[in-house]
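Archive transcription. Copying these from loose printouts into the bound notebook so they stop getting lost. Printout 1 of 2:
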Amino acid sequence: MGFLQRFFKNVFREGELPTGASSFQRLSEAELESHLEVSRYGNFTLADAVRPSYDLQVVPSQGYRHDYFRDEENHNSVPVLMASVSREHLFETFMELLDPLGFTVDVVLETSHKQRHRGHADLYREHIDLPVLKSVLWEYEELLMNDGCTGLAVLNPGVPQEIQFDEHKLLIVYGEQLREFEDILRQRNVGCNDQIRFITEAEHVHSSSDLFAQQFDELKTRLGMDGDFAGGQETDDWGLEVRG
């Protein structure tokens, strides 16, 4: 079975995308491989975890915007900052955004490595000193930056504030008081653009590998997290899932 056949075998799940709806569907193997090799769009560079649709419904770019998370159960809205940062500065920016959370935090690892259906499993660790957490995360920078099936959230429930470094390598900040986080983004030359669109808002493809899945298990152990997630099929480096 060729690369393109494996790609579509692993990517398209029954009922997920209408026939002909994907920009990837009629590509030759050479066209697909060429698209997946592109990481730079103008002055912006994507991490290896994701790639946009072939027809570039959203062109990746750097910036942040204001948004709200709407809690339907409690009928309230939480302010949100959503940011896309070029790969050269992405991980350092994420680490700096953690500092306002305080000395002791909770951490959530999110994985979709072995999920049989769309969605992810969460593993939770309470009360870890932020310097200890940062030290561990630096060791797993390659996994966190380039695995499209690994996400991370760090939070202080007492504030409450939360920073997400999600599977798409977007930075998402939740909380009532966000000025300090906004200042950090601006100091990192991540400008405000409330019209910016993110890769999540159109079709895109995630990248992962069995090696990254193994490293995720190592990271889980290093952070003292118990529990496992549902088993599933192995995946190739590209083509785990097209989402739109």
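Printout 2 of 2:
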Amino acid sequence: MSQSEILNVPARCGRAVHLKAGQSLKIINTHGHQVVDFWAFNTEDMSEFLSMEHLRATLGTIFPQAGQGLISNRRRSIMDFAEDTSPGVHDTVMAACDTHRYASLGCTEYHDNCTDNLKAAMKAIGLGTPEVPSPFNIWMNIPVGPDGSTSWEAPVSKAGDYVVLKAMIDVVAVMSCCPQDLVPVNAGAPTEVHYQVLD
């Protein structure tokens, strides 16, 4: 398997990449405690995208694991969750942070956020998206209690952990280094991550 150079997603920023069917995206948690909001869109029809609602219904779990398909809003696997060297704690429940989320947390000025990172990353490659689907929150630790309660906790991943996501069709994949620093999801300190495209 050939590998491209290792590239950087700066802290608090997003990046979008084109993947052909059969190519994979390796996302590396460089410092160990960074959440990556992840989206994938069908290159040929952007109205088809990775959907957490459809994923949960198809897989029967809120915690996808390596070896399972990542499901689109047309109920098919558009990516394969091929590898995961972390403890496997990821989130499929929480929406991407946005200006409204930070306002609810008391921010009175603009705060970087994953929704805007998605839009900026798509614009940087000449694309847009008609909506912001709920992301696959890689390494986000949202424990769910027996009563259905949730909490915001620091990731359990370590430096150098990575996931590999394989495209089943041509997709645009988008990564956002979550800039959340008001709850513990990034251990209070958003950082960069790195990625490679694998053929």
